[in-house]
């Protein structure tokens, strides 16, 4: 029997490796199997432009995202003008260059498998 040398791992967002807070939201990060996975919690009134842009210091979000939407609704506007809503159960692939905000009064929660390593970290 051939083995890969890797072992099973289990982690939980109830005990994240890192938490980054920003106005009306937070990002919880876990690293597992050499990959970083983020769970973002966006409260009603959260918008990338006003909550994260001051940290990123970029015109629009430059983090690419591959996300599963757990709760709430996010409205996304791409730099090219394309716009759409992401709702619970949706999976979205967002390239660099977008803004987003919470629609309505429900907290939006997304699990992101790409793009959260530097998200909501102050520009260097």
Polypeptide structure, described:
This is Cupin. It comes from Oryzomonas rubra. By secondary structure, the protein is mainly β. It has one domain (18-112): Jelly Rolls (Sandwich), CATH 2.60.120. It is 6% helix and 43% strand. It is built from two helices and nine strands. The protein has helices spanning 48-51, 53-56, and strands at 18-22, 25-32, 35-42, 65-71, 73-78, 83-86, 91-94, 98-103, 108-112. The strands form two sheets. It has a six-stranded antiparallel beta sheet with strand order 1-2-3-9-4-7, with no helix packed on it. A hairpin with a 2-residue loop joins strand 2 and strand 3 (35-42). The protein is globular, with a radius of gyration of 15 Å. The mean pLDDT is 93.
Query: Spans with pLDDT under 50 lasting ≥5 residues?
Result: none
Count of helices?
Answer: 2
Indicate the mean pLDDT: 93
User: Termini distance?
Assistant: 48 Å
- Largest sheet, order of strands side by side? 1-2-3-9-4-7
Number of discrete domains? 1
What is the architecture at the second tier of CATH?
Answer: Sandwich
Protein name: Cupin
Architecture blueprint of SSEs:
Layout: E1 18-22, E2 25-32, E3 35-42, H1 48-51, H2 53-56, E4 65-71, E5 73-78, E6 83-86, E7 91-94, E8 98-103, E9 108-112
Antiparallel strand pairs: 1-2, 2-3, 3-9, 4-7, 4-9, 5-6, 5-8
Throw out a few tags for this protein.
124 residues; mainly beta; Jelly Rolls; three-stranded antiparallel β-sheet; 2 helices; RmlC-like_jellyroll; Cupin
